[in-house]
Amino acid sequence: MKHQPLFTNKESKSLDSLAIKELGFHEETLMGMAALSVFHANEDLWKTAESIWILCGTGGNGGDGYALAHILYQEGFPVRCFSTAPNKSEAGKFYEALVSKSLGVTSNLEDFYKEWEEAKEDSVLIVDALLGTGFQGKLSKELVELIETINDSEVFFYRLSLDTASGWDPNSLGKPGETNVFVYADSIEELGTRKWENVGFIYEKDSIIPRYYESIGFPIKTHLNKAIFSNRYYLEPNPESAIQALKRKNKDHKYSAGSAIFYGGETGMEGAILLSENAFLRLGGGISKIFSPSPQICSLVLKEDLSKMTKTSSFSDTTSDPFFIKTKTLVVGPGLTKFPKDLEGWTLPEDKKLILDAGAIPSFGTKLPKGNQILLTPHVGELNRMTGKTHNSVQAAYDTLVDYCPQNNVYVLLKSFVSLLVCPDGSSYIWESPNPKLATMGTGDLLSGILARYLSLDFDIPDSVHLALSFLDHSKQLEEPYPSAHQILKSLVELV
């Protein structure tokens, strides 16, 4: 599984301290490396600007800004530097002095506003080096006014933030009385570490703002231990492995190719469980059986395919069926409107894996089934119902699930524009590859079938989630702007 560690602001500061105090890095060196990385990563961007303005704060982020200004000036770019106040860190003071020697005296905010009023529309690329990840507390009136000017003015054609967008705080999203004033960055350069608090950074309805990671020599691997790292990771798409894993081997038989049971589809909603099972089979699953509370399920299934197995039953009848003993994977929930009563407190056999989706996502207070391989796949509304709490950010969801999953010994995959998998051992994985083509009826049922396919091949739950999300990512290539779940499945089948 391709994944990269995500560090909280607190952990990033600890890494900074480790590098300087224990490993002997000079803070000036780290600032210089950060600035050099940002410079090279954006060389094409600098060339588009008539003028580059860098807003520097009083801390380490401001020091990075001064160091970047020095490099830009020496490389011949038209750069100006504005500061909110003199820098407080020794390394920051070093680069501030360097800028004063090369560019002249650093301008203040009064100068900034004067020049802003005279600047032409779309003429300035602005670099936000105001606050960084270490800032906590409320913004001053002066900073609120400055950030609102940056966001609203047509003078600035591009806004680039160093490490994080100044003022951004995911924990305040949706809270009454919170102003949520932050720089509307067009991109963020994360320096030294990938930042947990930046996950899900969005100010436009339809897109996550891009973030780019720049390595500056931080001792990341040294830092990965349970005492000082919270076990959060960023998943990188692995589309080719996702395809190859689904291809059948010559020696496969119907059970080694994957077996699964699907339970769901109340009267009038049978299509959901049919879609899940269809995805499993058409992507190479060897054998499956549908169980449903609907009296019509048999006629619907056999009308579609006489070779399929199906039965009208309760969930408890499913577990006494001879096929139950032979299968590895169970999917419960697509097409259900309520949690099956006979699933409460039920014990999943050790050799099986269970996916709970849609109507099988329990409400708060419902007794969960027991077992070591149980995956719940709620969307945000179902997560709120499941936990009795409201979540306005992926960070808030994590705070709930990092307790919920170990307490209930379950895995939870939150399905949203940013997906979050939290495991019983406390580890968590972020999938930040929004796919608007999946915002249609039936794609949750489709995902359940794809997850069942990977689980039936003996991949563990984290790997199955990673592969399933990577595989679904291929649907972005569809020319159809708003494909149905069946169209998405058809396109995916063609890949294998």
From TrEMBL:
Cofactor note (record): Binds 1 potassium ion per subunit.
Reactions accelerated catalytically: (6S)-NADPHX + ADP = AMP + phosphate + NADPH + H(+); (6R)-NADPHX = (6S)-NADPHX; (6S)-NADHX + ADP = AMP + phosphate + NADH + H(+); (6R)-NADHX = (6S)-NADHX
Domain of life from the UniProt record: Bacteria
Keyword entries, A-Z: ATP-binding, Isomerase, Lyase, Metal-binding, Multifunctional enzyme, NAD, NADP, Nucleotide-binding, Potassium
Cofactor or coenzyme needed: K(+)
Keyword Cytoplasm: no
Entry EC number(s): 4.2.1.136, 5.1.99.6
NADP recorded as keyword: yes
GO biological process, one term: metabolite repair
PROSITE patterns in the record: YJEF_C_3, YJEF_N
Domain named YjeF N-terminal: residues: 12-215
NCBIfam families: yjeF_nterm
Annotated PANTHER family: ATP-DEPENDENT (S)-NAD(P)H-HYDRATE DEHYDRATASE, ATP-DEPENDENT (S)-NAD(P)H-HYDRATE DEHYDRATASE FAMILY MEMBER
Official protein name in the record: Bifunctional NAD(P)H-hydrate repair enzyme
Organism: Leptospira bourretii
Lineage per the UniProt record: Bacteria, Pseudomonadati, Spirochaetota, Spirochaetia, Leptospirales
